[in-house]
Amino acid sequence: MNTADYGLHETLEVHELAAFKTLCMTKAKAMKLLVSDPELKQILLDDVEISTRQLQELSHILANSDIREMRS
Protein backbone atom coordinates (compact mmCIF):
# COMPACT_ATOMS: atom_id res chain seq x y z
CA MET A 1 0.00 0.00 0.00
CA ASN A 2 1.18 3.50 -0.66
CA THR A 3 0.50 6.59 1.44
CA ALA A 4 -2.69 7.44 -0.47
CA ASP A 5 -4.30 4.17 0.65
CA TYR A 6 -4.43 5.16 4.34
CA GLY A 7 -7.08 7.44 5.75
CA LEU A 8 -6.27 9.75 8.63
CA HIS A 9 -8.52 7.78 10.99
CA GLU A 10 -6.75 4.54 9.99
CA THR A 11 -3.34 6.03 10.67
CA LEU A 12 -4.47 7.29 14.07
CA GLU A 13 -5.95 3.89 14.94
CA VAL A 14 -2.66 2.17 14.06
CA HIS A 15 -0.86 4.70 16.24
CA GLU A 16 -3.23 3.90 19.13
CA LEU A 17 -2.63 0.17 18.62
CA ALA A 18 1.14 0.73 18.69
CA ALA A 19 0.89 2.75 21.90
CA PHE A 20 -1.27 0.07 23.56
CA LYS A 21 1.01 -2.74 22.38
CA THR A 22 4.05 -0.88 23.73
CA LEU A 23 2.37 -0.54 27.11
CA CYS A 24 1.48 -4.26 27.18
CA MET A 25 5.02 -5.25 26.22
CA THR A 26 6.51 -3.02 28.91
CA LYS A 27 4.21 -4.60 31.49
CA ALA A 28 5.11 -8.14 30.35
CA LYS A 29 8.83 -7.31 30.62
CA ALA A 30 8.37 -5.94 34.12
CA MET A 31 6.20 -8.85 35.27
CA LYS A 32 8.64 -11.51 34.06
CA LEU A 33 11.13 -10.23 36.63
CA LEU A 34 8.60 -10.87 39.41
CA VAL A 35 7.34 -14.28 38.27
CA SER A 36 8.80 -17.45 39.75
CA ASP A 37 6.71 -20.01 37.83
CA PRO A 38 8.77 -21.12 34.79
CA GLU A 39 5.71 -21.75 32.62
CA LEU A 40 4.28 -18.30 33.27
CA LYS A 41 7.71 -16.74 32.72
CA GLN A 42 7.91 -18.48 29.32
CA ILE A 43 4.46 -17.17 28.39
CA LEU A 44 5.61 -13.63 29.22
CA LEU A 45 8.84 -14.09 27.23
CA ASP A 46 6.84 -15.35 24.25
CA ASP A 47 4.50 -12.37 24.56
CA VAL A 48 7.44 -9.95 24.52
CA GLU A 49 8.87 -11.63 21.42
CA ILE A 50 5.55 -11.56 19.57
CA SER A 51 4.86 -7.98 20.66
CA THR A 52 8.27 -6.90 19.35
CA ARG A 53 7.48 -8.32 15.91
CA GLN A 54 4.02 -6.77 15.91
CA LEU A 55 5.41 -3.37 16.86
CA GLN A 56 7.89 -3.59 14.00
CA GLU A 57 5.00 -4.26 11.62
CA LEU A 58 2.97 -1.38 13.03
CA SER A 59 6.02 0.87 12.78
CA HIS A 60 6.37 -0.06 9.11
CA ILE A 61 2.71 0.80 8.49
CA LEU A 62 3.10 4.15 10.25
CA ALA A 63 6.27 4.91 8.29
CA ASN A 64 4.34 4.38 5.05
CA SER A 65 1.53 6.71 6.08
CA ASP A 66 2.14 10.39 5.56
CA ILE A 67 -0.38 12.51 7.46
CA ARG A 68 0.91 15.71 5.85
CA GLU A 69 -0.16 14.40 2.44
CA MET A 70 -3.68 13.82 3.72
CA ARG A 71 -4.13 17.43 4.82
CA SER A 72 -3.82 18.70 1.25
UniProtKB/TrEMBL annotation:
This is Spore coat protein. It comes from the Bacteria.
